[in-house]
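hi! just following up on the protien thing from before. the input was this:
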Amino acid sequence: MRSVSFLAILAIMTSAAFVNAAEEVLNPAADSPLWEGAATRNFGSATYGYWGWYNGCQRTLVRYDCTKISGKVTGAKLSFQFMRNDYGTGKMWACKVTETWVESVVTWNTQPKHDDAVASRLLDIDWVSGLGPHTKDCTAAAVAIIQGWVDTPATNYGVMLKKNPESGTVPRCYPYMKESSSQPVRLIVTYTPSAVAPASLGKIKTLFK
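and the predicted 3d structure came back as:
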């Protein structure tokens, strides 16, 4: 066994314990627009989504893979760019989805349930003007929601983009999807990594070999 310096171990553990805040920029793992006006049609391969109302409600499902994140979530932003944005008075919401869905199958008629209560809104902002990209702070509730996704990935069903109120032809917009060459709807998560990262534990173990 190697002679292990207590100071060497302490240095590794100290550097791991005082890690800086990290940021993860997440592109959609899945996204699919939904349109009440074409209730049986799947739009999972579309290059832009729906966010508003036009001949029926227009919504978009987006899900992110949060498995790269570990530790304590401290904040989040949504960043999006539009193919078209018809500006007006209204709210842009991103609400927690509570059931599973499949990008290539889901339709308006088969859409999963979502929760649009205040505690389940990741985004709740006045309608933005222009095509963007726009990067907006998520709500305080988003921190707890994303933390839940990080701790229990099986509960991560993503978000529903919807307008409030769901009426009137404006405002409405068409955000780019992951199938587009333009920026899709991104989730930017800031977090404090776990105190002792796996890489640091590995360094400690090698000292005893």
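Residues 73 and 191 are 4 Å apart (CA to CA).
The helical segments are 6-17, 140-151, 198-206.
cheers
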